[in-house]
Task: structure prediction
Amino acid sequence: MALKFRRLVAGIDRELRVTSAVRTEAQKVGHHEVVAVANLVQHIGLMTVDFAIVSAEFFSCEERWRKSLYGRIASLMIVECFEDFGELLGKKLRDALVAMSYDSAVMANLNRIHKELNSLRNRNEEVLRQVRNNVFGHRELDTGVQLRVMESLDPAMIGGVMKELMTWLLTLQQFTGGLLPHMLQFVKARLAKDR
Result:
């Protein structure tokens, strides 16, 4: 697991460096479509690393309060992921991919990935949002309610959603990694044309 995690992080680090360089060049010359795609690639990288760390902690600990804490952190991250990627995979990205002449298979794959996220969201958001809003942030001032919600948390359910989301994140990361070569070619061609 540790080796697999180190490889994942090293790959994401490389991808973030490349994407940052491409994004910087694209911003300089006003290629907003490239910036939109680069933003998604960077967001998925950051989310995947953070979520992998929280997941590793959740699955490796047995102590009840510690496991509960990491389950609550994961609940927060999952709800934020549902919201963020619902927007990041939307119209702005799709318009950017069309403007950059990505193959129609890319759009079909994006639609499939977005549909998977929506399915995961529809099945799990309500209970995870309750955890995020009332327990993790301790917004609920009635600690009796907080304790009931915390005690009702099913670590197996939270763990199952975490595994599903990590699988989805890795699928999205693989998808965005496939966008990079075309994005680099697009930027190089546009820079050569603008000179």
About this structure: The mean pLDDT is 88. The radius of gyration is 19 Å. Residues 2-189 form one domain. The chain has one domain: 2-189.
